[in-house]
Amino acid sequence: MTIKKRIAISNILMIMAPIVSTIIIVSCTLFVIYLHLIHANDLSFVNVEDFNVTSHAMVEVLEERIEAKDPSVLDNLDTSLEKAGLSLVIFEEEDIIFHHGRIPEKFINASKAIGSLSESSSSITIENENLYSEKFVAEDKEYTVFIYGLFSGNTYERYERIMLIIVMILLLTVILSICITNRILVKFIFSHIENPLKLLVNGVEELKKGNLEYHIEYTYRDEFYPVFLNFNQMAMRLRESVEEKKAEEEKARMLMTALSHDLRSPLTSIKAYVEGLLDGVAYTKEAQIRYILTIKRKTEELESIVSRILSYSRMDSKEYQREEKVMRLDIFLSSLFEEIGEDYKERGMEIILETTPALLSFDGFEMKEMITNIADNSLKYKKGEKCTFIIRLEKMDGCIYLSFSDNGPGVKGEDLERIFDLFYRANQARDDRKNGSGIGLAVVKRTVERMKGRIWAENIPSGGLRIIMRFRDGGEDAEHSDN
Question: If you average pLDDT over residues 183-202, what whole number do you get?
Answer without folding.
Answer: 76
